[in-house]
Amino acid sequence: MARRAIVREPVRPDQPRTGGGGNAVRLAVIEMPSVMQDPTHTQMPHDPLVTLEDVSFARGSRVIFDGVNIEIPRGKITAILGPSGGGKTTLLRLIGGQLEPASGKVTVFGRNVQGLNTAELFAMRRRIGMLFQSGALLTDLDVFENVAFPLREHTHLPESMIRTIVLMKLEVVGLRNARRLYPRELSGGMARRVALARAIALDPLMVLYDEPFAGQDPISMGILVRLIKQLNRALNLTSVIVSHDVIETASIADQMYLIADGKVVESGPPATMKSSATPAVVQFMQGLPDGPMPFHFPGADYLTDLIDGASP
Ligand SMILES: Nc1ncnc2c1ncn2[C@@H]1O[C@H](COP(=O)(O)OP(=O)(O)OP(=O)(O)O)[C@@H](O)[C@H]1O
Ligand SMILES: [Mg+2]
After folding, report:
1. Whole domain around residue 5: which residue ranges?
2. What is residue 293's predicted lDDT score, i.e. its pLDDT?
3. Do 91 and 4 sit in the same domain of this protein?
4. Are 134 and 281 found together in one domain?
5. For a designed S-S bond to 190, which of 130, 186, 256, 258 qualifies (C-beta 3.0 to 4.6 A apart)?
């Protein structure tokens, strides 16, 4: 079933106008282009949208993942928790096909990501909204143009429709009236919401959030938490949140995975994770400094390093 959208179009002199005023526009219903449609709507509602099967990945000699299995169910919010440097951003890059696993299989929207050619990979990425860890707004463009950017890059929509879509997305995040501000004029929380509007500009099937709450005050954090949940429901999205903010993430996730030392330590709904007796889960869920998860990046021990004047 094709989706439709209402747009404002300039009128030619021979066309009827909307209302009797002097506005040289009319409202028109147009078919959304295929990039805006959900090509998997025929799938079963609870198919996993993404699966990682026995995935391993290393950076040089450093093993980041060692036989990881993860399922991202359609329509749900899945949280992937893990310590800093544990591989959360890497995991999102494996899902997006920017990185390839050394072994194992990553399946996205029913396709093995490694088997996709460049055009198929780009088509897959167009259906994934990404909220980058850094926010990554384009500093030379205002809020409107930042949200319009993926529409201009990936579609040939008329300007009137781009305007409608951008305003709709900005309305959702409460920043329609901030559309002429530049990134330097935004607070951190506002910038994150603009990035969120941009992530959903192409009506993705799935949104990947990389540390959406990092560096936010409690009010912005609360707004973002509610927004992610509302968007997931209202837009029938599938959301993946990678984060080390346990409380916020647990408050909206349907299921959680804890990754540490390259493996999935435990997974389940937030309540199960909170009551887990597994030491690494207890340490992480309660933010305890001591436990199986190390604070230090692995390598030579401290004393050896101090007395070994030769190494850099
Ligand atoms: N481009 C790269 N080249 C080499 N090593 C990298 C690269 N990117 C990340 N790493 C290493 O991979 C490991 C995992 O990094 P990643 O960014 O996935 O961690 P993270 O869990 O997202 O951390 P954080 O919570 O701090 O964002 C780290 O040890 C990091 O040093
Ligand atoms: Mg990261």
Report:
1. 1-31
2. 63
3. no
4. yes
5. 186
Instruction: Please give the Cα distance from 124 to 35 (Å, whole number).
Output: 10
Q: Are residues 26 and 53 in the same domain?
A: no
Counting ligand 1 atoms within 8 A of each CB, the residue from 89, 94, 134, 213 with the most, and so the one to mutate, is 89
- The model's pTM is 0.80
Residue type, 240: V
Q: Is 261 in the pocket of ligand 1 (CB under 6 A)?
A: no
| Position 152 in a domain | yes
Is residue 43 a contact partner of residue 206, using CB atoms and an 8 Å limit? no
Which of 64, 68, 133, 264 for mutating ligand 1's site (highest number of atoms within 8 Å of CB)? 64
Count structural domains, the chain. 2
Q: What is the pLDDT of residues 45-75, one digit of tens each?
A: 557 899 999 999 999 888 999 999 999 999 9
SS3 166: helix
- What residue owns the CA closest to ligand 1's atom 5? 59
Task: Return phi, psi of residue 105, to 5°.
Answer: -135, 135
Q: Are 270 and 256 in contact (CB under 8 A)?
A: yes
Question: pLDDT (tens digit, 9 = 90+) per residue, 259-307?
Answer: 988 999 999 999 999 988 888 888 888 877 766 666 666 677 777 777 7
Same domain, 19 and 83: no
Question: Three-class SS of residue 123?
Answer: helix
Nearest CA to ligand 1 atom 1: 59
Nearest CA to ligand 1 atom 25: 84
